[in-house]
Amino acid sequence: MDWNFEYGELAKDKEFVNKYESLKENLIELQKVLEKLLPLKAQYDKMCLPAQIELDLFLAFTLNSLHWVQLRVEGVDPTTHPIKDELQRIKTVMMKWQEVKDKEKRPTVDVEAAKRFVRSGLYDPYRAIGQPANKKIKFKEDDE
Where is the signal peptide (predicted)? Predict the structure, then answer.
């Protein structure tokens, strides 16, 4: 794509030119990234599941973000467009995926050791005086 545009009369508007140049640089950088990632779709079936998920999320978010930018350039308010809900849905899925990935890094609890700590930490007053926890049960000594 030819990124060289002549501004004509708009060349006098420095704010417009600066915004356009910034947008152009970001789009060129995005194009380079996509040119590297899109060939991966040919090897998609050979990729491991986490890599497939991350590629899908990245491409979905990128394409929807580009649609958002397109709407802004056309003068349409994207906050009232369904694309806002789609981007929010993708962000939610990305956060869930991040939680799944972080779950592997979390420390695990030794359940049996925790049970022993809790059991030994609880004070049982009936054990100390030799009476059963259920007061209706009587010792044989009390029957006499």
Answer: none
Instruction: Centre a 10 Å sphere on the Cβ of residue 87 and count the other Cβ atoms it contains.
Output: 18
Quickly list DSSP for 47-85.
Answer: S-HHHHHHHHHHHHHHHHHHHHHHHHHHT--GGGSTHHH
The H-assigned helical ranges of the chain are: 14-37, 49-74, 83-103, 111-121, 125-129, 140-143
Say if residues 17 and 11 touch (Cβ distance below 8 Å). yes
pLDDT in tens, the chain (144 residues): 666 777 777 778 888 888 888 888 888 888 888 888 888 878 888 889 998 999 899 889 988 998 888 888 888 898 999 999 999 999 999 999 999 988 878 888 888 888 887 877 766 656 656 665 566 655 555 444
